[in-house]
Design a protein that fits this description.
Its main location: membrane. Keywords: Membrane, Sugar transport, Symport, Transmembrane, Transmembrane helix, Transport. One of its GO terms (molecular function) is symporter activity. By secondary structure, the chain is an all-alpha fold. It has 23 helices and no strands. The longest helix is centred in the C-terminal third of the chain and has 56 residues.
Amino acid sequence: MAHQNVENNVVIGQSQQPASYKYPLGSAILASMTSILLGYYIIIMSGAAIFIKDDLKIPNVEAKILVAGVASVFPFAGLTADWIGRRYTMVCAFATFFSGAVLMGFANSYFLLMFGRFIGGVGVCYAFMIAPVYIAEISPASCRGILTSFPEVFINVGILLGYLSNYSFSKLPIHLGWRFMLGAGAIPSVILAVCVLVLPESPRWLLMRGRLGDARQVFDKISNSKAEADSQFADMKAAAEIPENCTDDIFQVPRRAAVWKDLLLHPTPSVRRILISVVFINIFQQSTGIPAILIYGPKIFQKAGINNDTGKQLATVVIEFVKVPCTLVATWGLDRIGRRLLLLVSVAGMIVSLVGLGVGLTIIDHLDQNQKLGTSLCTTTLVFYVAFYSIGMGPITWVYSSEVFPSRLRAQGASMGVFANKLTSGIVSMTFIYLCNGITMGGAFFLLAGISSVAWVFIYMFLPETKCKTLEEMRTLFGLG
């Protein structure tokens, strides 16, 4: 590249002053709090559905559809982000989730419940698409991995709030308890919408819109030095095809083909490879079993031989406590070990754990004299599965999806990945119990182990290492340079 990369100097120790990125760190934490909504959305209906079934007298199939939710993002999140900007897209996401939560809280029929669930799903998916994209666009290359993995950490906060809400409101009368569980999600959405307004707009979005003066001001805030800001700004101008000698505050950006055409209709070979990589890593993140573990954890523990309600709830809490520190391990290792190695180790551990879980459940089904062995094997391997998922496949999917696309394609490309992710999650959630009934629960986990093996091969073959590369340098990894 024409300009020396100051961020790389920080990484290899050539800088005279250690990097201090307080501004992007604060912005990343605040933006990452959007994923609280996703964690809450995943968990809250699993507790509320029990009371909804009794209150509204709905059949089991409809209750399962409620729990699974709806993958309602489609590619429109990216269009919105490119149109009004990353920051205001987050505000729109909160407003949409607020509307869904209120609708669910006041619903008096299954139709209104599903409509509110759909609206809330739109808000959740918008928020979880835009947060990693925004963080990637304001983060220095040397710490982009750890900052972009923060949303996965805050998912666990949302899950914890969902558990607390389910527990707290379960003591109310049946016709009120589930309404408070679902409606309470409106409160954090209002608080977070107000907080997000203090964030700066993404400098790369500003540059794409030709607002060079505003973009330069943000680069000055998020960079560790003037030299680093100069380097980032010059590289971004070159990637956006803005003349190097242009010093205007407003630049008339040339009209180009619609983004979706460059993504789907006429992609270059490199863009096609990026899109395939992002879509399939999102599919594999969900199809390797995590929705089944989170939603049907108590049923899995019951099958494993833990029959009392207290034991099942305690086991579920243990899983959550394992997930949080392992996710923090991933945030530490992303910019030190790298995305690719962590992913390969993560998925390899998941394969072994899923095989062990399948063996344990098969022992319980067929060998009465070895029930304790089966129970011990199931609980141990389930904890290991969550641990290995959390050190790689969980957080790195979002990091990778948000950083590999060229700036102009990033928002809409990432939204397609999120759509694939949520669609797969819904399919796994709705079909897991039927799969267990058809091939046994042990057989279902053997199948998930097979899918995980395919995922490992895909990662090894398709995903290059992106550690410490600037967003503009991604072009060379996929043949765009």
